[in-house]
Amino acid sequence: MNPSRFKYINTKHNDVSKKILLYWMQQSMRVEFNHALDYAIKMANLFKIPLVVFFIIRENYLGANLRHYKFMIEGLIEVDESLRKQGIKFVVFKNESEAYSLIKEAHTLVMDYGYLKTQINWIKSILDFIDYSMLKINVAIIETDSIVPVKQAYFKGAYGAYVIRPHLMKKLTEFMDYSSPPKYLIKQEANLEAFNYVNISLDILKNLETDLDVKPYYKFKGGHSEAINHLINFFNNKVNDYSRRSDPSLQIQSYQSIYLHFGNISPLEIMNIATKYYNNNLVKKEDYDSFIEQLLVRRELSFNFVTYEKDYDDFDYMTEEWAYITMNNHIEDKREYIYTADEIEFSKTHDIYFNACMYEARLTGFMANYMRMYWAKKIIEWSITYKNAYELIVYLNNKYLLDGRDANTYTNIAWCFGKMDRPWMERPIFGKLRYMNDLGLKRKFDMDKYVQLINSLKKE
What we know:
CATH topology of the largest domain: Rossmann fold
CATH architecture of the largest domain: 3-Layer(aba) Sandwich
CATH superfamily of the largest domain: HUPs
Structural class: alpha/beta
Mean pLDDT: 95
Largest sheet: 6 strands, mixed
Number of domains: 3
Number of strands: 6
Number of helices: 18
Protein backbone atom coordinates (compact mmCIF):
# COMPACT_ATOMS: atom_id res chain seq x y z
CA MET A 1 0.00 0.00 0.00
CA ASN A 2 1.26 3.43 -0.92
CA PRO A 3 1.80 5.26 2.41
CA SER A 4 0.04 8.34 1.00
CA ARG A 5 -3.25 6.50 1.52
CA PHE A 6 -2.89 7.14 5.25
CA LYS A 7 -4.94 10.21 6.18
CA TYR A 8 -3.99 9.87 9.84
CA ILE A 9 -1.87 7.43 11.75
CA ASN A 10 -0.84 7.10 15.39
CA THR A 11 0.95 3.85 16.27
CA LYS A 12 2.78 4.72 19.48
CA HIS A 13 0.71 2.55 21.83
CA ASN A 14 1.12 -1.13 22.64
CA ASP A 15 -1.10 -1.88 25.61
CA VAL A 16 -0.87 -5.67 25.89
CA SER A 17 -4.01 -5.74 28.06
CA LYS A 18 -6.15 -4.69 25.05
CA LYS A 19 -7.41 -7.84 23.35
CA ILE A 20 -9.30 -6.53 20.30
CA LEU A 21 -8.24 -4.94 17.04
CA LEU A 22 -11.04 -2.96 15.36
CA TYR A 23 -11.82 -1.91 11.82
CA TRP A 24 -14.68 0.57 11.54
CA MET A 25 -16.04 0.02 8.04
CA GLN A 26 -18.07 3.05 6.90
CA GLN A 27 -17.42 3.96 3.24
CA SER A 28 -15.67 0.86 1.93
CA MET A 29 -18.36 -1.80 2.35
CA ARG A 30 -16.43 -4.68 0.85
CA VAL A 31 -13.73 -7.25 1.58
CA GLU A 32 -12.08 -7.14 -1.85
CA PHE A 33 -9.43 -4.52 -2.75
CA ASN A 34 -9.82 -2.87 0.65
CA HIS A 35 -6.57 -1.31 1.88
CA ALA A 36 -8.07 -0.49 5.29
CA LEU A 37 -9.22 -4.06 5.94
CA ASP A 38 -5.89 -5.46 4.77
CA TYR A 39 -4.01 -3.14 7.11
CA ALA A 40 -6.26 -4.20 10.00
CA ILE A 41 -5.59 -7.87 9.25
CA LYS A 42 -1.84 -7.25 9.19
CA MET A 43 -2.00 -5.43 12.53
CA ALA A 44 -4.09 -8.20 14.09
CA ASN A 45 -1.53 -10.74 12.92
CA LEU A 46 1.34 -8.59 14.21
CA PHE A 47 -0.11 -8.10 17.69
CA LYS A 48 -1.68 -11.59 17.78
CA ILE A 49 -5.15 -10.36 18.76
CA PRO A 50 -8.51 -11.03 17.07
CA LEU A 51 -9.93 -8.58 14.57
CA VAL A 52 -13.51 -7.31 14.78
CA VAL A 53 -15.06 -5.33 11.92
CA PHE A 54 -18.01 -3.13 12.81
CA PHE A 55 -20.46 -0.94 10.91
CA ILE A 56 -22.76 1.77 12.27
CA ILE A 57 -26.21 1.99 10.69
CA ARG A 58 -27.57 5.52 10.91
CA GLU A 59 -31.27 6.04 10.39
CA ASN A 60 -32.47 8.80 8.05
CA TYR A 61 -29.03 9.44 6.62
CA LEU A 62 -29.33 12.37 4.15
CA GLY A 63 -32.76 11.33 2.93
CA ALA A 64 -32.00 7.62 2.60
CA ASN A 65 -34.99 5.27 2.61
CA LEU A 66 -35.97 1.62 2.27
CA ARG A 67 -34.47 1.40 -1.23
CA HIS A 68 -31.06 2.58 -0.04
CA TYR A 69 -31.01 0.66 3.26
CA LYS A 70 -31.98 -2.65 1.66
CA PHE A 71 -29.26 -2.25 -0.96
CA MET A 72 -26.73 -1.36 1.73
CA ILE A 73 -27.68 -4.26 3.99
CA GLU A 74 -27.51 -6.73 1.08
CA GLY A 75 -23.93 -5.63 0.56
CA LEU A 76 -23.12 -5.90 4.26
CA ILE A 77 -24.56 -9.43 4.40
CA GLU A 78 -22.05 -10.40 1.72
CA VAL A 79 -19.28 -8.71 3.73
CA ASP A 80 -20.31 -10.73 6.78
CA GLU A 81 -20.23 -13.98 4.82
CA SER A 82 -16.78 -13.24 3.39
CA LEU A 83 -15.32 -12.21 6.74
CA ARG A 84 -16.82 -15.22 8.51
CA LYS A 85 -14.99 -17.55 6.09
CA GLN A 86 -11.74 -15.99 7.29
CA GLY A 87 -12.72 -16.27 10.95
CA ILE A 88 -13.28 -12.51 11.36
CA LYS A 89 -16.26 -11.27 13.38
CA PHE A 90 -18.55 -8.63 11.83
CA VAL A 91 -21.05 -6.71 13.97
CA VAL A 92 -23.45 -3.80 13.52
CA PHE A 93 -24.30 -0.94 15.87
CA LYS A 94 -27.34 1.29 15.62
CA ASN A 95 -25.47 4.44 16.61
CA GLU A 96 -22.03 5.75 17.49
CA SER A 97 -22.52 5.71 21.26
CA GLU A 98 -23.11 1.95 21.22
CA ALA A 99 -19.74 1.49 19.52
CA TYR A 100 -17.84 3.56 22.07
CA SER A 101 -17.70 0.81 24.67
CA LEU A 102 -16.07 -1.50 22.13
CA ILE A 103 -13.59 1.18 21.06
CA LYS A 104 -12.51 1.59 24.69
CA GLU A 105 -11.32 -2.03 24.66
CA ALA A 106 -9.41 -1.76 21.39
CA HIS A 107 -5.68 -2.00 20.97
CA THR A 108 -5.89 -0.44 17.47
CA LEU A 109 -8.72 1.22 15.54
CA VAL A 110 -8.59 1.32 11.74
CA MET A 111 -11.02 3.48 9.75
CA ASP A 112 -11.61 3.97 6.05
CA TYR A 113 -12.13 7.46 4.63
CA GLY A 114 -15.24 9.17 3.24
CA TYR A 115 -15.36 12.48 1.40
CA LEU A 116 -18.63 14.12 2.39
CA LYS A 117 -18.90 16.47 5.38
CA THR A 118 -21.09 14.03 7.24
CA GLN A 119 -18.57 11.21 6.88
CA ILE A 120 -15.69 13.43 7.92
CA ASN A 121 -17.68 14.54 10.98
CA TRP A 122 -18.22 10.88 11.91
CA ILE A 123 -14.46 10.36 11.88
CA LYS A 124 -13.91 13.55 13.89
CA SER A 125 -16.44 12.49 16.52
CA ILE A 126 -14.62 9.19 17.03
CA LEU A 127 -11.25 10.92 17.28
CA ASP A 128 -12.72 13.48 19.70
CA PHE A 129 -14.12 10.64 21.82
CA ILE A 130 -10.70 8.98 21.93
CA ASP A 131 -9.02 12.26 22.95
CA TYR A 132 -11.70 13.18 25.48
CA SER A 133 -11.55 9.73 27.07
CA MET A 134 -7.72 9.84 27.00
CA LEU A 135 -7.64 6.39 25.43
CA LYS A 136 -4.26 4.92 24.64
CA ILE A 137 -5.19 3.43 21.32
CA ASN A 138 -3.50 3.21 17.93
CA VAL A 139 -5.52 4.84 15.14
CA ALA A 140 -5.15 4.65 11.37
CA ILE A 141 -7.40 6.27 8.75
CA ILE A 142 -6.86 4.92 5.24
CA GLU A 143 -8.23 6.24 1.95
CA THR A 144 -9.22 3.23 -0.12
CA ASP A 145 -12.18 4.40 -2.21
CA SER A 146 -10.15 6.44 -4.67
CA ILE A 147 -7.41 5.44 -7.06
CA VAL A 148 -5.23 8.49 -6.40
CA PRO A 149 -5.93 9.91 -2.89
CA VAL A 150 -7.68 13.26 -3.08
CA LYS A 151 -4.89 15.39 -1.60
CA GLN A 152 -2.32 13.61 -3.79
CA ALA A 153 -4.39 14.14 -6.93
CA TYR A 154 -4.33 17.95 -6.68
CA PHE A 155 -3.44 20.41 -3.93
CA LYS A 156 -6.40 22.79 -4.34
CA GLY A 157 -9.79 23.11 -6.00
CA ALA A 158 -9.55 22.26 -9.70
CA TYR A 159 -11.62 24.35 -12.09
CA GLY A 160 -12.20 21.46 -14.47
CA ALA A 161 -11.11 18.03 -15.65
CA TYR A 162 -8.35 19.50 -17.82
CA VAL A 163 -6.64 20.81 -14.66
CA ILE A 164 -6.62 17.60 -12.65
CA ARG A 165 -6.21 15.08 -15.50
CA PRO A 166 -2.42 15.41 -16.04
CA HIS A 167 -1.76 15.19 -12.30
CA LEU A 168 -3.81 11.99 -12.04
CA MET A 169 -2.12 10.40 -15.05
CA LYS A 170 1.32 11.29 -13.72
CA LYS A 171 0.63 9.61 -10.37
CA LEU A 172 -1.50 6.72 -11.56
CA THR A 173 1.21 4.04 -11.63
CA GLU A 174 2.33 4.60 -8.05
CA PHE A 175 -1.23 4.14 -6.80
CA MET A 176 -1.92 0.90 -8.62
CA ASP A 177 -0.94 -0.49 -5.25
CA TYR A 178 -2.96 -3.62 -4.73
CA SER A 179 -1.75 -7.18 -5.28
CA SER A 180 -3.28 -9.80 -2.99
CA PRO A 181 -4.94 -9.68 0.44
CA PRO A 182 -3.08 -10.90 3.55
CA LYS A 183 -4.12 -14.14 5.23
CA TYR A 184 -5.77 -13.75 8.63
CA LEU A 185 -3.77 -15.93 11.04
CA ILE A 186 -5.61 -15.49 14.35
CA LYS A 187 -7.53 -18.53 15.56
CA GLN A 188 -9.20 -17.29 18.74
CA GLU A 189 -12.41 -15.22 18.63
CA ALA A 190 -12.95 -11.89 20.35
CA ASN A 191 -15.18 -12.02 23.44
CA LEU A 192 -18.04 -9.63 22.65
CA GLU A 193 -20.63 -10.75 25.19
CA ALA A 194 -20.51 -7.42 27.04
CA PHE A 195 -21.31 -5.30 23.99
CA ASN A 196 -24.67 -4.29 22.57
CA TYR A 197 -24.40 -5.18 18.89
CA VAL A 198 -26.58 -6.91 16.31
CA ASN A 199 -25.74 -9.42 13.60
CA ILE A 200 -26.37 -8.24 10.07
CA SER A 201 -29.53 -9.46 8.33
CA LEU A 202 -32.47 -8.06 6.39
CA ASP A 203 -34.45 -8.23 9.64
CA ILE A 204 -32.78 -4.93 10.57
CA LEU A 205 -35.07 -3.26 8.01
CA LYS A 206 -38.11 -4.07 10.16
CA ASN A 207 -36.93 -1.82 12.96
CA LEU A 208 -35.53 1.10 10.98
CA GLU A 209 -37.29 4.43 11.24
CA THR A 210 -37.15 5.40 7.58
CA ASP A 211 -39.30 6.17 4.55
CA LEU A 212 -40.85 2.88 3.43
CA ASP A 213 -42.58 4.28 0.33
CA VAL A 214 -39.54 4.23 -1.98
CA LYS A 215 -39.26 0.56 -2.85
CA PRO A 216 -36.20 -1.41 -3.99
CA TYR A 217 -35.96 -2.42 -7.66
CA TYR A 218 -35.24 -6.03 -8.55
CA LYS A 219 -32.44 -5.22 -11.02
CA PHE A 220 -30.19 -3.66 -8.37
CA LYS A 221 -29.04 -5.65 -5.36
CA GLY A 222 -26.18 -4.67 -3.11
CA GLY A 223 -22.85 -6.42 -2.79
CA HIS A 224 -19.52 -7.02 -4.47
CA SER A 225 -20.70 -10.04 -6.45
CA GLU A 226 -23.58 -8.02 -7.95
CA ALA A 227 -21.17 -5.23 -8.86
CA ILE A 228 -18.94 -7.72 -10.65
CA ASN A 229 -21.92 -9.24 -12.50
CA HIS A 230 -22.96 -5.84 -13.87
CA LEU A 231 -19.36 -4.99 -14.74
CA ILE A 232 -18.66 -8.22 -16.62
CA ASN A 233 -21.96 -7.93 -18.48
CA PHE A 234 -20.95 -4.41 -19.48
CA PHE A 235 -17.54 -5.47 -20.82
CA ASN A 236 -18.90 -8.54 -22.56
CA ASN A 237 -21.91 -6.91 -24.19
CA LYS A 238 -21.88 -3.11 -24.07
CA VAL A 239 -18.44 -1.52 -23.85
CA ASN A 240 -17.76 -1.29 -27.58
CA ASP A 241 -20.81 0.95 -27.91
CA TYR A 242 -19.54 3.16 -25.09
CA SER A 243 -19.07 6.14 -27.40
CA ARG A 244 -22.90 6.14 -27.75
CA ARG A 245 -23.53 5.93 -23.99
CA SER A 246 -25.27 9.33 -23.89
CA ASP A 247 -28.23 7.88 -25.81
CA PRO A 248 -30.66 6.87 -23.02
CA SER A 249 -32.55 4.50 -25.32
CA LEU A 250 -29.50 2.22 -25.66
CA GLN A 251 -28.99 1.55 -21.93
CA ILE A 252 -25.20 1.45 -22.28
CA GLN A 253 -24.36 1.62 -18.60
CA SER A 254 -22.09 -0.37 -16.32
CA TYR A 255 -24.10 0.76 -13.24
CA GLN A 256 -20.84 0.96 -11.32
CA SER A 257 -21.69 4.40 -9.92
CA ILE A 258 -24.22 2.69 -7.64
CA TYR A 259 -21.75 0.12 -6.33
CA LEU A 260 -18.93 2.65 -6.01
CA HIS A 261 -21.25 4.87 -3.98
CA PHE A 262 -21.81 2.10 -1.43
CA GLY A 263 -18.16 1.02 -1.52
CA ASN A 264 -19.18 -2.44 -2.76
CA ILE A 265 -16.37 -2.38 -5.33
CA SER A 266 -13.03 -0.62 -5.50
CA PRO A 267 -12.21 1.66 -8.44
CA LEU A 268 -8.84 -0.10 -8.53
CA GLU A 269 -10.53 -3.44 -9.16
CA ILE A 270 -12.69 -1.91 -11.88
CA MET A 271 -9.59 -0.44 -13.53
CA ASN A 272 -7.80 -3.80 -13.33
CA ILE A 273 -10.70 -5.57 -15.03
CA ALA A 274 -11.05 -2.87 -17.69
CA THR A 275 -7.33 -3.02 -18.43
CA LYS A 276 -7.38 -6.82 -18.78
CA TYR A 277 -10.16 -6.56 -21.36
CA TYR A 278 -8.23 -3.85 -23.19
CA ASN A 279 -4.93 -5.77 -23.13
CA ASN A 280 -6.74 -8.79 -24.56
CA ASN A 281 -8.03 -6.64 -27.45
CA LEU A 282 -11.62 -6.97 -26.29
CA VAL A 283 -12.12 -3.21 -25.88
CA LYS A 284 -11.35 -0.51 -28.43
CA LYS A 285 -8.87 2.12 -27.30
CA GLU A 286 -11.33 5.01 -27.56
CA ASP A 287 -13.91 3.14 -25.46
CA TYR A 288 -11.30 2.12 -22.89
CA ASP A 289 -10.01 5.70 -22.65
CA SER A 290 -13.56 7.07 -22.27
CA PHE A 291 -14.36 4.57 -19.54
CA ILE A 292 -11.17 5.38 -17.60
CA GLU A 293 -11.91 9.09 -18.00
CA GLN A 294 -15.19 8.58 -16.12
CA LEU A 295 -13.77 6.18 -13.53
CA LEU A 296 -10.62 8.13 -12.76
CA VAL A 297 -10.73 11.76 -13.90
CA ARG A 298 -14.40 12.69 -13.50
CA ARG A 299 -14.86 10.74 -10.29
CA GLU A 300 -11.76 12.17 -8.65
CA LEU A 301 -12.66 15.65 -9.85
CA SER A 302 -15.81 15.28 -7.74
CA PHE A 303 -13.73 14.28 -4.69
CA ASN A 304 -11.67 17.38 -5.31
CA PHE A 305 -14.83 19.53 -5.38
CA VAL A 306 -16.32 18.30 -2.11
CA THR A 307 -12.91 18.37 -0.40
CA TYR A 308 -11.87 21.90 -1.28
CA GLU A 309 -15.33 23.49 -1.44
CA LYS A 310 -16.50 23.09 2.14
CA ASP A 311 -20.02 24.32 1.28
CA TYR A 312 -20.43 22.08 -1.76
CA ASP A 313 -24.05 21.35 -0.78
CA ASP A 314 -25.08 24.98 -0.14
CA PHE A 315 -26.68 26.82 -3.06
CA ASP A 316 -25.04 30.10 -2.07
CA TYR A 317 -21.49 28.73 -2.36
CA MET A 318 -21.46 25.74 -4.72
CA THR A 319 -20.83 27.44 -8.08
CA GLU A 320 -18.87 30.22 -9.82
CA GLU A 321 -19.22 33.97 -9.31
CA TRP A 322 -20.22 34.55 -12.96
CA ALA A 323 -23.02 31.99 -12.54
CA TYR A 324 -24.47 33.79 -9.51
CA ILE A 325 -24.30 37.11 -11.38
CA THR A 326 -26.17 35.76 -14.40
CA MET A 327 -28.80 34.03 -12.25
CA ASN A 328 -29.34 37.22 -10.29
CA ASN A 329 -29.75 39.16 -13.54
CA HIS A 330 -32.47 36.77 -14.74
CA ILE A 331 -34.35 36.04 -11.51
CA GLU A 332 -37.35 38.10 -12.71
CA ASP A 333 -37.54 36.49 -16.16
CA LYS A 334 -40.98 35.15 -17.04
CA ARG A 335 -41.26 31.35 -16.99
CA GLU A 336 -43.59 29.79 -19.56
CA TYR A 337 -44.14 26.87 -17.18
CA ILE A 338 -43.88 26.81 -13.39
CA TYR A 339 -44.49 23.44 -11.75
CA THR A 340 -44.90 22.52 -8.12
CA ALA A 341 -42.50 20.11 -6.47
CA ASP A 342 -45.25 17.47 -6.50
CA GLU A 343 -45.88 17.89 -10.24
CA ILE A 344 -42.18 17.53 -10.95
CA GLU A 345 -41.66 14.56 -8.64
CA PHE A 346 -44.60 12.59 -10.00
CA SER A 347 -44.09 13.25 -13.72
CA LYS A 348 -47.00 15.65 -14.20
CA THR A 349 -45.30 18.08 -16.58
CA HIS A 350 -45.93 18.73 -20.30
CA ASP A 351 -42.51 17.24 -21.19
CA ILE A 352 -42.78 13.51 -21.99
CA TYR A 353 -39.01 13.02 -21.83
CA PHE A 354 -38.71 14.63 -18.42
CA ASN A 355 -41.69 12.63 -17.17
CA ALA A 356 -40.08 9.43 -18.44
CA CYS A 357 -36.70 9.93 -16.78
CA MET A 358 -38.35 11.06 -13.53
CA TYR A 359 -40.42 7.87 -13.59
CA GLU A 360 -37.29 5.81 -14.25
CA ALA A 361 -35.65 7.35 -11.18
CA ARG A 362 -38.72 6.77 -8.99
CA LEU A 363 -39.06 3.14 -10.06
CA THR A 364 -35.49 1.91 -10.50
CA GLY A 365 -33.19 4.24 -8.57
CA PHE A 366 -31.15 4.99 -11.68
CA MET A 367 -31.07 7.56 -14.46
CA ALA A 368 -28.68 7.76 -17.41
CA ASN A 369 -26.14 10.58 -17.12
CA TYR A 370 -27.33 12.66 -20.08
CA MET A 371 -30.91 12.53 -18.86
CA ARG A 372 -29.76 13.61 -15.39
CA MET A 373 -28.39 16.80 -16.93
CA TYR A 374 -31.56 17.40 -18.93
CA TRP A 375 -33.70 16.61 -15.87
CA ALA A 376 -31.88 19.16 -13.71
CA LYS A 377 -31.94 21.83 -16.41
CA LYS A 378 -35.71 21.48 -16.77
CA ILE A 379 -36.22 21.83 -13.01
CA ILE A 380 -34.18 25.05 -13.16
CA GLU A 381 -36.39 26.29 -16.01
CA TRP A 382 -39.68 25.46 -14.24
CA SER A 383 -38.87 26.73 -10.73
CA ILE A 384 -39.68 30.16 -9.28
CA THR A 385 -36.12 30.66 -8.02
CA TYR A 386 -32.78 29.04 -8.75
CA LYS A 387 -32.34 28.18 -5.08
CA ASN A 388 -35.70 26.39 -5.04
CA ALA A 389 -34.60 24.47 -8.11
CA TYR A 390 -31.29 23.49 -6.54
CA GLU A 391 -32.88 22.27 -3.33
CA LEU A 392 -35.50 20.25 -5.20
CA ILE A 393 -32.87 18.65 -7.44
CA VAL A 394 -30.79 17.63 -4.42
CA TYR A 395 -33.88 16.34 -2.59
CA LEU A 396 -35.11 14.19 -5.49
CA ASN A 397 -31.60 13.01 -6.32
CA ASN A 398 -31.02 11.87 -2.75
CA LYS A 399 -34.48 10.37 -2.36
CA TYR A 400 -34.67 8.22 -5.47
CA LEU A 401 -31.24 7.58 -6.96
CA LEU A 402 -29.17 4.80 -5.45
CA ASP A 403 -26.00 6.80 -6.11
CA GLY A 404 -27.39 9.99 -4.61
CA ARG A 405 -25.81 11.65 -1.55
CA ASP A 406 -22.49 11.28 -3.34
CA ALA A 407 -19.54 13.47 -4.30
CA ASN A 408 -20.28 12.75 -7.97
CA THR A 409 -23.89 13.81 -7.78
CA TYR A 410 -23.22 16.99 -5.79
CA THR A 411 -20.61 17.91 -8.40
CA ASN A 412 -22.90 17.13 -11.34
CA ILE A 413 -25.72 19.18 -9.83
CA ALA A 414 -23.36 22.11 -9.29
CA TRP A 415 -22.24 21.75 -12.93
CA CYS A 416 -25.86 22.33 -14.01
CA PHE A 417 -25.57 25.69 -12.25
CA GLY A 418 -22.29 26.61 -13.96
CA LYS A 419 -19.62 24.98 -11.78
CA MET A 420 -16.62 23.90 -13.88
CA ASP A 421 -18.46 25.14 -16.97
CA ARG A 422 -18.09 28.32 -19.01
CA PRO A 423 -20.51 31.16 -19.75
CA TRP A 424 -22.70 30.50 -22.79
CA MET A 425 -24.75 32.79 -25.01
CA GLU A 426 -27.22 34.90 -23.04
CA ARG A 427 -30.81 33.68 -23.06
CA PRO A 428 -33.99 34.08 -20.96
CA ILE A 429 -34.14 32.37 -17.53
CA PHE A 430 -30.74 30.67 -17.88
CA GLY A 431 -28.76 33.78 -18.63
CA LYS A 432 -25.28 32.49 -19.42
CA LEU A 433 -25.88 29.04 -17.91
CA ARG A 434 -25.81 26.15 -20.36
CA TYR A 435 -29.26 25.44 -21.78
CA MET A 436 -30.82 22.11 -22.84
CA ASN A 437 -34.13 21.41 -24.56
CA ASP A 438 -36.20 18.56 -25.94
CA LEU A 439 -35.31 19.43 -29.55
CA GLY A 440 -31.68 18.68 -28.72
CA LEU A 441 -32.67 15.31 -27.31
CA LYS A 442 -34.69 14.40 -30.40
CA ARG A 443 -31.92 15.55 -32.72
CA LYS A 444 -29.29 13.39 -31.02
CA PHE A 445 -31.17 10.32 -29.81
CA ASP A 446 -34.08 7.99 -30.50
CA MET A 447 -36.27 9.48 -27.80
CA ASP A 448 -39.40 7.64 -28.89
CA LYS A 449 -37.56 4.40 -28.20
CA TYR A 450 -36.54 5.72 -24.77
CA VAL A 451 -40.13 6.61 -23.87
CA GLN A 452 -41.27 3.15 -25.04
CA LEU A 453 -38.58 1.59 -22.87
CA ILE A 454 -39.77 3.48 -19.79
CA ASN A 455 -43.40 2.65 -20.58
CA SER A 456 -42.44 -1.01 -20.69
CA LEU A 457 -41.07 -0.69 -17.14
CA LYS A 458 -44.51 0.39 -15.99
CA LYS A 459 -45.86 -3.01 -17.06
CA GLU A 460 -43.34 -5.07 -15.11
